[in-house]
Structure prediction request, 281 residues.
Amino acid sequence: MQPSNPKAEAVPFPKVPEFIFANWREELNQAGLAEKVRAGYTVAISGYLDYCLHNGVSVALESARAYMGDAQRRQLARDPELWKEGLNWFFRAGRRMSRQGPPGTPSRAMADSGRTDWERRMIERLRLGHYSWRTEQTYREWAWRFHLFLKGKELETASSQDVKGFLTELAVKGRVSVATQQQALNALVFLFREALGADPGDVSGYEPARRGRRMPTVLTRQECQRLFRELEGATRLMAELMYGSGLRLTELLRLRIKDVDLDRLQVLVRAGKGDKDRVTV
Prediction:
């Protein structure tokens, strides 16, 4: 049973995680532990990470001790010793993985832990919040562009005026779209609140991007058929599947055989845009 209200008293815990252990569940499943022990470890670790997320603290020994103290005071841990063993395993394995990197890492997301303290903090908050890897990449890119915009000024000392200046420059000089400017704003608000632990303040009043009116450029059905005839093998199959079902590239690359239902002529898209599942035909 996990804490129903994980919000705890404000404690000056470290704002930078000791490590970022994104694939702890996979490692735990491969640890060769008894099912009951593995289940107890999972409850303890997932509860602790929820505690960190809701209290705005980082993964560190101090916050783990506070979590266990809170759980024991409220009698949430049926087996406190098992929970402590689970958290000890989490920290031992997490430190080892941060030094060595996960063997056979399937993607950059597992091994990439950032270059600065604020970026490590941002990555931690994104992963605790279960944001997609694509969203993480986008938010981090905007954070670094803002960092370069400050021209040597410390990111921790940035103000709402700096944010408005950055957004205005995107619209005036960069001539970005409305959606791109809004995406940058969302990323910077997340950076301030989650990574820097600060209030971004009033960021209204920046120069808004202008909505462009452009006629879309599309291929006719005949042009698509000519294009497909120039392709062959798996490449042609992928192109035709994207064309016929409206799949995005990343959705296509994640597709598995079991996701294709030939009887119903349906394709199950897992973790699509917004990390949502959907069915397409």
Notes: The longest strand covers residues 266-269. The first helix runs from residue 24 to 29. The two ends are 40 Å apart (CA to CA). The chain has three domains: 24-111, 117-195, 221-280.
